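Hi R.,

Here are the chain sequences for the assembly we discussed:
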Amino acid sequence: MFGYQGKFLRVDLNREETNIEEIDPELYLNFLGGRGLGVKIFSSEVSPDVAPLSPENKIVIATGPLTGTGTNSGCICSIVTKSSLTKTIISAQGKLYFGAELKASGYDGIIIEGKAKEPCFLFIKDQKVQILPAEYLSETNTDQTETLIRSTINDPWVARETRILSIGPAGERLFPLAALVTDGFLVQNSVGIGAVFGSKNLKAIVVRGTKDVVIHDKELFFKAVVNSIDEFYQSKSLKAFSDLSTYVVFEEFLNNDILSASYFTQSPDHISLSQIKSYWQRHRGCFSCPVSCLKAKENGAFLPDIDALWALGPLSGIYDLKTIITAYDICIKMGLDPVETGLTLACLMSLKERGLLEKEELKIKLQFGNEEAFLDILTSIIVKGKEPLLGKGAFGICQYFDKPDLFIGVKGRSAPFDVQSYWPLGLQYATSTCGATHLTGFIFLKGITKNTEDIVSQVKLVQDKTAVLEALGICPYALGSFSLENLLSMFQGATGVILTVEDLLKIGETIYQLEHEFNQNVGIGLEADNLPKRWLFPKFQSLLKDYHQLRGWQ
Amino acid sequence: MYRIQIDHNKCTGCRYCELACSLNHLTTALNPKKARIRVLKEKGRFFPVISGPYTDAACNIKVDLIIGDKVYDFCDICRASCPHKDIFKDPVNKMPLQCDFCGIDAPGPSCVRWCPSGALKLVEIPSYY
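And here is the predicted structure of the full complex:
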């Protein structure tokens, strides 16, 4: 099959065996790949009752047909598993080079099952697949892990081009807050997956591939890519996104009270875009992406996106950008999800402010705006035997203190943006299959506002589009401006299959349906599609009802 | 005479040039490892390096290159394909690869045509020969 490698690698950690499996071409046609194929394989192999951290849970890493081909933003691989934070199915978006490298190694994806007896890491170099001991990597942060693994490779060029997906100490401690990191960059939407890796004693996946990705029609493909690059040069919105990254919505969010402070109790003050921009030294791009929206420091370390910056900053009462960036660095090194971690600390601060922490033996000096204490406690999260409470996440903490009403989030996952006046995002938070996140439906990239007439169908459309882009292996940020038509001609050039926009949206809908069915079997049904009490806006119930009706869910 | 000008300050590390080169030379497949231009990442910066001619002996003058306050291994930035390093060789049959200034979509080489950041540019320089 053109555009695909046609094979999946199955890794059984129990028996330390690896097998190569061919995938039915029908599955490729129906689910494309990436998130679609990942969700399909995962939901058909894993029973919804399994505990996320048990050996029976599996991890499916899948690339799409356009991953690593040179299609604009065609860089992502989806990592599908049952999240330990939300207990729902979750599909993370692995960006930078990992997906492309995995495809170049000759596999469309990896299925990981079982649990290794000792800490180990998976080493893939084309046909050569090894499960290697990782004792020397235990307790190392993600940065050290990458350096140590690279130092074992002789050729410096090969070492640099080896791609590593790893967990930090937080993942090894099985914290629901733990996320994945690849090449120093956070894997988006991966909160709760770090712990699943940790529970399997799998520290890292190392990939190096030198195989070809064969495509169907070179002329058509080449022209379509050149078109997309021209499209990029001409499009103002893409240029703006390239310059400002996710901060493109900053002013608008600030003016509409979507960005609030001190765990959603105050409005923020003195923080401006030009202050934030003064830290951006370099623009980085993922594999084959013209947009290059990632911002980095002079030494190449990545800077936080708007949600991470807000969670670690103003929502915790902190406005000093240096502190926020230091906190972000700590999160990445420890393998913690910065958004969830920031909001957990903010939640703890709000509990403390209400005087609920007094009785506890937690020696927490934490209060809104105390920068020193904030960094202290952040580093102490992963110190062995200390404050294990923090690792539970905001939802876990509120449950522990028996104050579930104080938790701001959906399905156990904290929300970084205040949606009281931004209804479409509120609906997205409530109906997302993996908790309160905008990462599965980029409402704001499409300019949908409270005053849009058909909020419900627009939200559904964006969710379906995001799902199908992830299935193709395209970064969902491309949703903003690249046209689906051009994408389809690239898809045709790469695979030789002709699809229409309607077909694509249908596939997106199917993926969403599959995820919903899995969650329903877990026991997280329609009643979990809800917003925190404080945020219930007047039209919410009717919007939600319409949404469920539109999806055909009773 | 035309030359490819490289501005490493603009390079974002997207590796479009590698993909374009491999697609042009392999005709139906993409494989950055078989490209005649490779992007080197060193100390948070990206350096596109275009392959030069094959030399059958490795040189013995190993120099460190100092740019700003950082020290780089000159061997990395050298564009020769030599017995000392495996870069710019076909990963399967180890044949040396050399940039041939291709042009699938005129004007100019495909890596320049695809580069979205403006790091690669085609410039005309006076010929002295």
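The first strand of chain B starts at residue 2 and ends at 6. Chain B is about 15% helix and 25% strand.

Let me know if anything looks off.

Best,
T.
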